[in-house]
Every structure is written in C-alpha cells, then in structure tokens.
C-alpha cells in the first residue's frame, strides 16, 4: 500500500493554529477597543475634568479667603476694593466652568449639572447684591450677608465640587478596575492561545515525525532490496562471464587446438609444394587466429589473471592490454603495498577501471590517461584521470556504465565520485574498504 | 511634525549641546573684590532653630549714588535677631564709595544704624530734591528714609503716611504710575505670617523645615501714591491692586503694551503671577492670565521669586524673566506682536540649565558690552537640610550668567568668568552698577545668613559703552519709566530706567549701552514719563552723559 501523504495532517494543524490565532486576535481587538474606550472616554476625560474641578475648587477657596478677609475687616479697605479680585476670580471661574462643561464625564447627571449652574448663579447674584450693599455704605449688612448667605452658598459650591471630584475619582477607580479585568482577560486569552498553538504544533509535529520515520524505513528497505537485486544481477553477470570465458577457453580452445594439430598432421603428409598442402596451411592459420580470438574474448570476459594473481597484477595486465588495443598512453602509479585482494573486491575494482578507461577512449578525445592506485591495509583507493573534454556542465541522465560503477562501489561498501578537473577532464575516484580476505576468491 | 520643524528642533539642540559651559571666553572677568573693597557685611537672618519663614527670604542690596558724587555707593539690607533671642545688634549697611576701589562704612554717620527686620530696598528721589531716598521693606513696619543731601538720612515713615502698614513686605519699587512727576511706591507682600501663628513644616516628619507659602494665607500688594508734598496715600484699593490671594516676592516695572504708561508685573510664589495694566486713569487691570504671564506653559502657578523685564532681543518688545523653585525651571516670557507672552525658557537654553536651581535675584544687563542684554540669576535653596531630602539639590547653588547670542539663545558662562563668582552660594539679592566708573557693570550679590559679595567686572574684549543718566524736570527727577531708544550702526534697541527690580534689590539707575567696538551711539531718543521726547546724536563710546529733561546733554558726568 502506498504510504499516506502527511499534507492533510499538516493542513489540519495549520488550520487549527490559524483558527486559534484568529479567535484570539478577534477577542483581543475587541478588548483593546474596550480599553481604548475606557482610557480615552473615561479615564483621560475624567482627569482633565478633575483638573478643571480642582481649578474651580481653588478659585472657590480663594473666594472663601477673600470673603473671610472682608467679613473680618482684615484689611483697612472698603469692601468694594475687593471687587477687582472677585472679578478676576469670576472670569477664571467662568472659563473653568465652560471647559468643565465640555469635559463633563458621562457619570454626571443632568440634575447635578443643573444644580452646579444654579448654585453658581445664586452665588454671583448674592455677590452682586453684596456690592450693592457695599456701594450704599451698608458695610455691616454686607458683612452680615457674607457671614450668612454668601458663605453658605460658597460652602454649598465647595461641597458640590468636592462631590463631583469624588464622583470623578470613583468613576476613574471603576474604570481602572474594568481595565484591570480586561487586562486579566487578555492575559487568560493569551495563555489559552499559547496552549492551543502549542498543542496544534505538538500534534502536527508528532504526526509528521511519525510519518517521516515510516517513510524513511520504507525507503531504506527498498534501497536494501534494490542493492541486493543489483548485487545479484552483477554476480549473475560475472558468473556468466566467468562461465563463458571458461567454456570459450576450455571447449573452443581445445577443439580449435585439436583442429590445428590435425591439420598440421595432414599437411605434413602431403608432398612439399602440393597445392592441397598450401590450402591446409591456410585453414590451419584461420583455426589458429580463431583460437587467439576466442582466448582473447575469454580473457576480456573474465581474465584468469584475476583469479590466479589478484587485483594488482590484473590492473597491470589490463593496462598493458588496453594500451596495446587502443594505442592510448596510460600513466600508472601505485602507492602502498597491495595486500591479497580476492575476487569479491577485485572483480568490481577491475570492472570500474575497465569502464573508466573505456569511457576515456570513447568520450575524452585524448590519448593519455592516468591511473593511480593507493593501497593500505584498510582500504583501496583508485583514480582514473584524463585531461579530455570532461563531464558535461549539466549532467544528463547517467549512462548505464556509470550506474554500473555506482552499483559496484555500493556493493563494495565504498564510494565513487565523478569529478570535473578544474583545467578540463574527468577524475573517477573510487574508494573501497578492505575486509579480512581469506585466501583467493 | 513636519520634517522642517524636526530639523529646526535639532538645530536648536546642537548649540545647546555644544555650548554648555564650554566654548569661547565671554570677553570679561569677574573678580571677587569684596574684602579688598572693605566690605565686611554678614547677613543676620536671626535664625535660632525655629526656622521661621522670614529667616530664609532675605536680603536685598543696592547700588546707588547717595551723595551724588558720580560714584556708585552700596547698600546692604539686614535683618535682626528675633525678640527674646537677642545675641547681636545688626543693621543695614551703607558703604560710601571712596573712588579708589574701596568703600567706607558710613551707616552710623548716615543715620541708618536702625535695627529692623529688613528684607528689600527700593531707591528713588520721591521728593525730587536731587538726592535718592531709601525705602526698606521689612517684616513688620517698613521704613522710608529721606536723604537730607548732607550725607544723612531721616526716617520719615511716620510723617510720610507709611506708618501702620504692617506686613511681610518683600520687593518694592518706585515708579510714577499717574505720571504726575512724583514717584509712587509699590510694595509687595508675601504671606500673612506672625511669630505666634508659625506653622510646623517638615521634610521628614521630625525636624522642622522652612515652610513653603502654601501653609499661609496670601497678602495684598500695596500701592502708595505720592501726593507731592512728602506724604503718601494708600491707593491699593482705589487703583484696583488689592488682591489678598497674592503671595508676592518680586516686582518690576515695564510698559508691555508700549503705551507710555507704566505697567507692573508681580511674581507670586505658588500663586498666579499678576500683570497690572495701567488704565491711564489711576487704575490698573490685572491681565496676567489673559496674556499668558500667570502660569507656566503647562498651566501651573510656579514659585515666582525675582523678576525683571527688558527689551532683550532689541526688538522693542519686552521679555520677562521670573526665577522659580528648583524642578520648575525659570520662566523667560517673550512678548509677541499680538500682545501675548510665551515662555521660551526651554528653547532659549535657560529651561534645562536652571532645572535644579532655586532662583532668587535676577536681572538683564550687558556685562560684555556687546549691546545685547544678558541675564544673571543667583540661586540658593531655602533650607540647609534640603540635600537630605533631595539628593540632586543643594543648599548653596552656583549662579547662572547667561550670555545672549542675539538669536534667541542663551549660554551659561558663569564658570568661565571667575571661579569665585561661580562658587555655590545661598544667594538672594543681586544688583549691578559700575562702582569703579570704568564703563562696565560690576555685580553685588547678597546671601542668606552669609556674606555679601562684590565682583569687579573687567571687560577684556575691547568693547566699550555709553553711560547715560537721565534727570527729569517735568518728569520725576530719577526719570523712572523713561525709555531710551538708541541706534549705533546696525545695533538698535531700547532701555528703560527703573528703580528696584529683580529680588529685594536695586541696581544703579544710569543706563549703560554696550556698543561693542563701535565708536559712537549715532542716535538716542529719550521718551520721558512726562510725554516729552528728545533726540540726541553722536554720543561717543567710553563717555558718560547726563541728559536733563528739556535742558540737554552734558558730557563727562553722570
């Protein structure tokens, strides 16, 4: 069954997260709006209103002090002398009251505002009457009026303004409480959001990890299977080559050798210079050539030197053959002491060398190649280098040869790299571990 | 904010950062010559531990020429021990100028060794006899001393009609509010305080501290009209000046609306400042709130102490300095063309520089004689234990000497003009005057319960001045309220003759016009209080002149 895609889980997780963030944002924005409303409409306005009320309270207190001076006769001046002072305070009060009326908080009732205006009007009307009495020289009556009616009105004003200030303070305290409650709600929402987002991330993440692990296990299993299959294909191929080589060498070789011997014997029985003798010699020549070709083909399919002398000698032998057959010059370098490398490793290294040098002659367009082999007890490294046209800039699909080389390197548990030389050309580098090899094969 | 405004703002900050107390030497030096001048005065506040409010307020000082010899003499006001706590006898001191840089104490000979709880001084020739008379504002009964012209003074408080006015009188000034040719007297009162009614104030709840004025009820200022016969009439009520809410400490004369009639600005402590506009009919209209002088820019009544007014930017518009409490900044109110005032102290470099200063005495003057009025502010806290309550505030505080760059910015150079001058003091009064007649302005500073200081100014930059004394004939003889408009090349401006200004103190009456390197004053116009206008030309730099109303100019003497 093909594995299920995790996209659905991820989408679901994303949706849950987005939903949580969206819900939180919606509620938070509403709460911020409430905060703004409370801040600007109630707290700020209350404070500005309170400032005006304090100004009014201060003016009323100043009036009180002046009235006290007038009643006590503290200054040696007629009562009317206080008129400019009252006028100044009256103007300031008027200005403050106008400002205050504009800032009046929502908690103020119409009745309260009306009362404030009425008491002020009554106070100033009393004060006007006072100036009248003062102008008429009725100082005692005026002083009595201050002590009784005007001071009473002023005290009423002072109380009224104090009450309004208290009311403002209470409204402000209530607003502050509400603000704190909103802050608490926002804080709670934040925690809920945090939990929801964390849960969504955890669940989605866990599912994705679980899915990835399953996929990885499947991929790994498939890779093992493919490797095994490739190994078997190569092994079967090598076995086939070996059998073919042996058959060619043993069967066809012996038959052809026997044919040659028999032809020689018949030839010798014929008189010198006989035409038949010459024909037989030609047939024998053909048989010998066929024998050579069969032997050569057998060696190419699976060189017996590999089984008899191991990798090191096989490389040297093959390079010699290669130079002879292709006319290429191969610079061979060997480093380290070669241990016995049996067929299991040797055949693959040999085939990689064979394929690499074949590629040079086929694609590089040069007449020289370099082969470097480094031996150490733990590993073998081999480089085949040419200074030819190099690998294409955009590697096309790997050819069968290169796939084969990779498969063989993997079968050895090693690695292979196809590098482009900076000055042009290609380097095939292969490295393979050398495990303890028990004798030949 | 527009980008242009922002850049302009930055442009303002940069000189502020660069200027500070660094930069070029201001071109003059102030040397402490108190001892070598023979001035050995110590103020006695009477303090004995009870921390009575008046103890921390005084006292004032004055430069004036009591003997009319053309050399400025010195008067230092003193208080006295409290009744029941008598330890010493202290009186004000009058120092006669010996014309050689030294002074002689002539207090006793002048008949001024009178004990009183003196606070301020205002000097004016109220009887127009040619000799300056003395008004000493006191806690209790203030005193008026008439100058006999023979080196002595006579206490005429009773006969002049000023007897019986008991108060906590602080600054006072002479001016001719009705322009009848006789100097009238304006007296500010602080609060209604008595020894018996003293209130316990404290920073820490245990030990007593000096109270701020909130603890006491305000007191009205007084205006006394000079009848011209040596007596005065209390016109406080009649003139519309009565205001029992005021807690006044400073007063100055100005003509803010340029109508030729003297107006009065009163600095109030914790109460709105007052601007009494002269209605030209013997009455005043208080308008400080309306024209923007009552409060700080954020609408608070500050602790106004000293005050002075002058044509600081030579524009013909008056600017007003008001010294305030620490953490309040000084107020520099600049007049606008539409008759309003705006506090420009922060933009002018004065606001931030004075944040931690508790300012008292202040005045505009021209110590470097460059033609632009600079500003002196002397400072000192009211309580010696203030450092315990507020770490960044000290009892003794250095003065500020702000140099006017002519472009609306002031640079404090106090530390660059003399170490002794810059030393912290518990300063109160301050006055300027050219005591050595070298053409530049020297400085006198008093301290609370401490010595007075005389600083000789030596202008080193080659600048010169023209000094002019105005003598009224139809106008009051001191020409108080006269305005001198001048022009010297590209320099022009105006100066007004005043009696006392600042805080409890009086500077010399002659006008000093700094000319820089200019050779002469091209033109001088005198607007006499009588309404007469006179014009003079070609007044030479470095010269002294006397201009007598209707009689003309005399060179070579003041």
* Portion in strands of chain B: 35-45%
Find the count of extended strands of chain A (DSSP E, 2+ residues): 5
Please give the count of helices of chain B.
5
Largest sheet composition of chain B = 8 strands, antiparallel
Please state the average pLDDT score of chain B. Answer: 93
The total of beta strands of chain B comes to 36
Shape of chain A: rod-shaped
Could you say which overall geometry of chain B the principal axes of the C-alpha atoms support? Answer: globular
Q: Name the largest protein-protein interface in this structure.
A: A-B, 17 and 16 residues
* Mean residue pLDDT of chain A: 86
Stretches of chain B where pLDDT falls below 50 for ≥5 residues?
1-20
Assign the structural class of chain B, choosing from mainly alpha, mainly beta, alpha/beta, alpha+beta, or little secondary structure. mainly beta
Structural class of chain A: alpha+beta
The helical percent of chain A reads over 70%
Would you mind describing this structure in some detail?
The complex is a heterodimer of chains A (441) and B (558). With 441 residues, chain A is of the alpha+beta class. Chain A contains eight helices and five strands. Helices cover 74% and strands 8% of the residues of chain A. The radius of gyration of chain A is 56 Å and the shape is rod-shaped. Chain B is 6% helix and 36% strand. Chain B is built from five helices and 36 strands. In chain B, the strands form eight sheets. In chain B, strands 6, 7, 8, 9, 10, 11, 12 and 13 form an eight-stranded antiparallel beta sheet that branches. The radius of gyration of chain B is 22 Å and the shape is globular. The model of chain B is unreliable at 1-20 (pLDDT under 50). The interface between A and B is medium-sized, with 17 and 16 residues.
